[in-house]
Design goal:
alpha+beta; Rossmann fold; 7-stranded mixed sheet; 14 helices; 30% helix
Length: 568
């Protein structure tokens, strides 16, 4: 470790020299109350900014130890400190100090959800915050004095404002950590209560817009559970809370257009993650094994057993190991379900608006016109009940266009001006009076869920003679070698840092476990065991702060969408 004065002398020496001379400042420096590590120096002012890290002793921060007392609280505390660092940087950093990214200081700032990240790593004795900074330049000429101001004035001020108990709102910090612990406790209790989801009374589910995930503040209707579905739960910090329990089995969400059906389903799909205080969805909890399913025309499918839904294709195509470069709506939705079940999903979340109509239902008139022998697709309505009976997998389904699902629903929730009503008995009475004349085409059983084993050679991320090239290109695209992986059909992927981590996880899986002959599910789970033990830093060979933990379902979803994927 070097004294900070050496960093100052180096900046003075390289002032007004060519930009590559900035490489001389790489190293670790003692700033007294914390350590500053310059891990990577950018090649020019327009390149990705330099990677830096501040490491401060926990004792110097003087935060209460109980904020870090278990794994969940550590995750929440790291999330809070990341946000604290980001706010301080926005207030303190002057910004533009030259061309390109000169003068910027940034950290991997979270959204409305709280995810395990490596932007802030809290150890037994230290707190690390990894961030990026644009080293100042005019053209390609180093501005040493401007760099001095950033590293010796702004960064110390940010550390003091964001990582010291005397400067941080202690009440807000504790509220943040306690809220996340409550949400995880609520999620863990769902199974014992026989529920797949819980929506707390008073929750605000509508969002401001499709691109603004913050809560709607004007004219938002607070959620209120119907009495017949209301349950109470005791939480560690918030005490007893009440709300609507969504039971296991088949649940329909019905109602008129614009009355909140899809808003409720969206809240449930995001309920697999904890949310920040004030989000409005802090008491929306969904079982961890819930996966949103949709049709995805054009996606790649590699040897998936879609025979529970599709058989007898023309020309004798095998649906027990179905492959295509350009899936239809029905075959893609069938594959998305089976691939999720292959990874252990226990709840399916489906909206008819994003589903293939011929996959969801086939009414009696169409059955009479086109006989089953000429129709390869078995509609979901004829499989959904068997899926729960045979495999214990529940379904929550938004349905506004077909009452045929009344025959298979255990619970029917009607949304009326964003308020839910339990209409299960009414739906059953209607189903009894208007008995369905369509034929159940689903057979006696749901069918087999086949586990697949990828061929190791299909995961080569090199680009010709170049070394490994893996990168996230926005939230819904991974550049993996010479190929793009399109993730636009995976709505529970919520943060670009998760996308970036998925690319690294695929490479980790390919290099460590794909060669062992494990199934896809078992191999990816091995990577997750490594992450549980070693953290996200195990995914890359250098220190970085831009990874967030994805769910295993989105990792498998990305692998399944690789057009290079080959299955034994």
């Amino acid at each position: 470790m070097k004294p900070k004065d050496e960093l100052s002398r180096t900046l003075k020496r390289i002032d007004r020299k060519g930009y590559k001379a900035y490489k001389d400042i790489a190293g670790v420096y003692d700033f007294g109350g914390y350590i500053l590590a310059v891990d990577h120096v950018q090649g020019d002012p327009f390149a990705a900014p330099s990677r830096l890290c501040v490491i401060t002793p926990r004792s110097a921060s003087r935060f209460s130890p109980d904020l870090f007392s278990n794994r969940i609280r550590l995750t929440a505390a790291a999330d809070f400190l990341t946000r604290s660092f980001a706010r301080a940087a926005k207030q303190i950093v002057r910004g533009n100090r030259g061309i390109g990214k000169s003068g910027m200081v940034g950290v991997d700032r979270p959204g409305q959800e709280v995810l395990p990240r490596n932007s802030c790593v809290i150890g037994e004795d230290s707190i690390q915050v990894r961030f990026v900074a644009g080293l100042p330049a005019a053209g390609r000429t180093i501005l040493g004095n401007e760099a001095q101001a950033m590293l010796f004035e702004e960064i110390p001020h940010i550390v003091e404002a964001s990582l010291r108990a005397g400067s941080v709102d202690a009440g807000a910090f504790r509220e943040h950590v306690d809220a996340v612990e409550d949400q995880e406790a609520l999620r863990e209790r769902l199974d014992d209560m026989g529920l797949v989801a819980f929506v707390g009374d008073g929750s605000i589910l509508p969002r401001r817009s499709g691109v603004d995930d913050r809560p709607l503040t004007r004219d938002a209707v607070p959620f209120q559970s119907p009495e017949s579905l209301r349950v109470s739960v005791d939480l560690p910090h918030r005490g007893t809370v009440s709300g609507m329990g969504v039971p296991r089995g088949v649940t329909l969400i019905v109602g008129g257009g614009f009355h909140g059906k899809s808003t409720l389903l969206t809240a449930l799909e995001r309920g697999v993650y904890p949310h920040v205080p004030g989000d409005g969805r802090e008491l929306v909890a969904t079982a961890p094994g819930a996966v949103k399913i949709r049709a995805e025309d054009g996606r790649y499918i590699e040897r998936v057993n879609i025979s529970p839904f599709i058989t007898n294709l023309p020309h004798g195509r095998d649906t027990g190991a179905f492959s295509t470069d350009n899936a239809s709506g029905s075959t893609s939705q069938a594959a998305n379900i089976i691939e999720s079940l292959e990874m252990g999903a226990k709840t399916l979340l489906i909206d008819e608006d994003t589903s293939a109509t011929n996959f969801m239902i086939r009414d009696e008139r169409m059955q009479e016109l086109i006989s089953k022998e000429k129709e390869p697709i078995t509609p979901f309505v004829d499989k959904v009940k068997k899926l729960h009976r045979d495999h214990g997998v529940s379904t929550v389904l938004v349905m506004g266009g077909s009452g045929d699902y009344f025959d298979v629903a255990d619970t029917v929730i009607a949304m009326d001006t964003y308020l839910p009503r339990d209409v299960s008995d009414r739906a059953a009475e209607i189903a009894g009076r208007h008995a369905a004349v369509r034929t159940d085409e689903g057979g006696e059983d749901f069918g087999e869920i086949t586990r697949r084993t990828p061929v190791p050679d299909c995961f080569d991320p090199s680009r010709g003679r170049r070394d490994v090239k893996i990168d996230a290109k926005g939230l819904h695209k991974i550049l993996y070698g010479t190929d793009d992986i399109d993730l636009s059909g995976m709505s529970q992927l919520i943060d670009e840092s998760q996308t970036r981590a998925i690319g690294a996880i695929i490479h980790q899986y390919a290099t460590r476990y794909a060669t062992r002959g494990l199934t896809l599910a078992d191999g990816v789970r091995e990577v997750y065991r490594d992450m549980e033990e070693k953290g996200l830093d195990d995914l890359v060979p250098y220190r970085t702060g831009n990874l967030a933990k994805p769910r295993i379902y989105e990792v498998a979803g990305a692998i399944n969408r690789m057009r290079t994927l080959s299955v034994k």
